[in-house]
Write a structure and sequence with these properties.
- The protein has one domain (7-140): Alpha-Beta Plaits (2-Layer Sandwich), CATH 3.30.70.141.
- The relative contact order is 0.24.
- It has seven helices and four strands; from the N terminus they run βααβααβααβα.
- By secondary structure, the chain is of the alpha+beta class.
- It has helices spanning 16-20, 24-34, 48-54, 64-71, 86-94, 107-111, 126-136; strands at 7-14, 37-45, 75-84, 120-122.
- A four-stranded antiparallel beta sheet has the order 2-3-1-4, sandwiched between helices.
Length: 141
Amino acid sequence: MSTSSSDERTLVLIKPDAVSRGLVGEIVSRFERKGLRIDAMQTRTLDGDFADQHYAEHVDKPFYPPLKAFMTSGPLVALVLSGDQVIDVVRTMIGVTDGRKAAAGTIRGDLSLSNRENLVHASDSPDSSKREIALWFPELG
C-alpha cells in the first residue's frame, strides 16, 4: 500500500467496557478490514491525572466525574491509526456518541447501548489528534 501526503493519523481508545466485554478483536478487525494501518497499540490503565490531561477541555463539566471514573475503571487499548482521511473515516465507523442512537453498521450502533460506556473514543479533528497522539504516544512525535 502506498503512502500519500493525504494520509493522517488519529488516536483511538478502546474503552474499558469494550475490553471487559471481549470486543477488542472485533473493533480492531473492523479498522483493519477498512484498510487503516495500526501505527502503535498498547494496553494500559488510565490514572486520574492522565485522564484529566486527556479530557482537559471537559474537566469542569458536570458529566466529567462519572466519565473519569469509567475511563479509570479498568484496562483500555490505545492505538494510532493512519490512512487517507482517517479522522473522518474512523468517526464515521464508530458512530454517534450515544450508542442507543448510533446507526446500525457502526461500532457503537452494533455493539453499544450507552452514552458514556460507548466502547470507543476517537480524535475529532487534526488538532485534537496531534495533541492526543503526543500525550499517549510521545515517541511518535
